[in-house]
Amino acid sequence: MTLQLIVRALVLSRGNFYWDDLILIGRAGRLSLFSAQFLLDNHDGHLMPGAFLIAGVVTRLAPYEWVWAAATLLVLQACASVAVLRLLRLLLRDRPITLVPLVIYLFGPLTLPSFVWWAAGLNALPLQIGLAWVTGDAILLMRTGRLRYAYTGTAAFAFALLCFEKSILVPLVAFVVVALRNRIDGRKAVRGAAALWVGCGIVAVTWVAVYVSVIGLPLGRDSAAQTVGLIEHGTFLGLLPALIGGPLSWQRWLPSPPWADPAPALVVLAWLLVLGAVVIGCYAKRDAWRVGLAVGAYVVLCEAAMVLARSGPNTAYELAQTLRYFTDSSVVIAAGMALVIAAPWRRRIRVPRQAVVGATALFLVASLWSTATFTRSWQLDDTANYLATARSSLADNTGTPMLDQPVPPRVLLPIAYPDNLISHVFSALPVRSAFADSTPVLRMLDDSGHVIPAGVGPARDIRQGPVPRCGYRIDGLTTVALTGALPEWNWTAELNYLASRDGSIIVWFPHGRAVTVPVRQGLHQVYVRLRGSGDALNIQAATSGLSLCLGAGPIGGVLPKSAGH
Fold first, then answer.
1. Percentages helix, strand, coil for the chain, rounded to the nearest 5?
2. What is the CA radius of gyration of the chain?
3. DSSP state of 346
4. How far apart are CA 356 and CA 340, in angstroms?
5. Rounded to whole angstroms, how far apart are CA atoms 407 and 58?
6. Which letter does DSSP use for residue 420 in this model?
7. What percent of the chain has pLDDT over 70?
8. Does the N-terminal peptide bond of residue 406 adopt cis geometry, omega within 30 degrees of 0?
9. What is the pLDDT of residues 352-379, one digit of tens each?
10. How many contiguous H segments (helices) and E segments (strands) does the chain have?
11. What is the pTM (predicted TM-score) of this model?
12. In what helix (H) or strand (E) does residue 516 lie, and over which residues does it extend?
């Protein structure tokens, strides 16, 4: 296990925050950590208050410090590895053959993509801990009758469920393993660990009620062809090659995560080896076919969850090849292997120890190679450079507020709106520019993260007003005409004004949100971020006695100064 943690630490040292990590950090910076708004947020169909809380605590203690986020992943991985080792020892005792399923779990690439991604690891690792620990407690409760295993098992299940809703399957897995291990019928398995099942049942019923009330029922938007495609890509190109140490190579287009890209020969080899192992196991061991069906059923459930949660018109088949949706299968597969090894012989087959050692060594070498190639692909992401530059630049430019803007698409795609706005992404920074709907000095973050002077690239213009030497006189509600209509979007208006006194005005599109804008006595400019649509702006003085003249000016997008003017 120490070697596994060293390897995984090296992988983490080549990574940094990615995609959903920034969403978690942004929400932790804006919201109270113990508020329902933060803990019970619907995060892309996930209800994960435990994961949110862990991310929130780390963010508050060390915002944007990857080393501390990585440390949480290593701690959770250590707990998961200990839980799996404990389960395998309960199933196989301290036999050398225990190392085979243990190595497959510890070093197999199946768990790697979820581990290195903080947001995904905060889901996947607690689920792995829950699967292994609750199953181990169920076995010990059956063996000893001590109620403490019911208490710790229920607590482990609750922890896993707080981090990932898929953990609802944990008691079912534990029940099946207990029944298969002892070759007993369902009623005996129920009675033998009844206290644990009751505790888990109470937790599960409560959780389902909360989940349905907050998230609703997961409904996919898939077609039959897409379902088949996702399952085919996930099984043939993802899961099966990973079971023999593949895929050996990965592909990626930013900002997506890497996906498995095995050679066709490796896919064929994986099919032959996995099918051969299943056939030999069923031939030689009693009840091996039952174990195979149970493991296969769990994999099918994983695929069904993927299809329900992620299918849709914009879903690419490569999503299934990222392996994230099969991560927890690694625990179930390791437990299944142990059950088959521990089962009585039907027909004894002599397998040379050298062959077992050699096969395990080949798996280890292939897995380490796959880990190395994954790491090279994973570190291509340059989010870390952007974050470091932006943090420093925002801290050095705190004099005037900045208008909000999205981060570059390579950091967060527009589909993450509004979590892709810099006011969200950098909300946890202790020292930074303020973000507001208006500013007297227009600046922006460029694609590398530097704060630079900016201007308005005109899509339309505010027309020259009808009042000589004034333009539009604004003391009450005034409609200011534009040179053409603008569609619904986030626009920036440059307002050139002469104000009679300090105060504020209210500005809005005919179809849009109103923004209150501070103004100063005299001749000045102010830049206003407006969301809406229309062919005019409505402007109203919000301060008693304020009179304002408004001249012509552009309205459009924010561009670097050289490009804007």
1. 55, 20, 25
2. 29
3. S
4. 15
5. 22
6. T
7. 98
8. no
9. 889 999 999 999 999 999 999 999 999 9
10. 21, 15
11. 0.93
12. strand 515-519
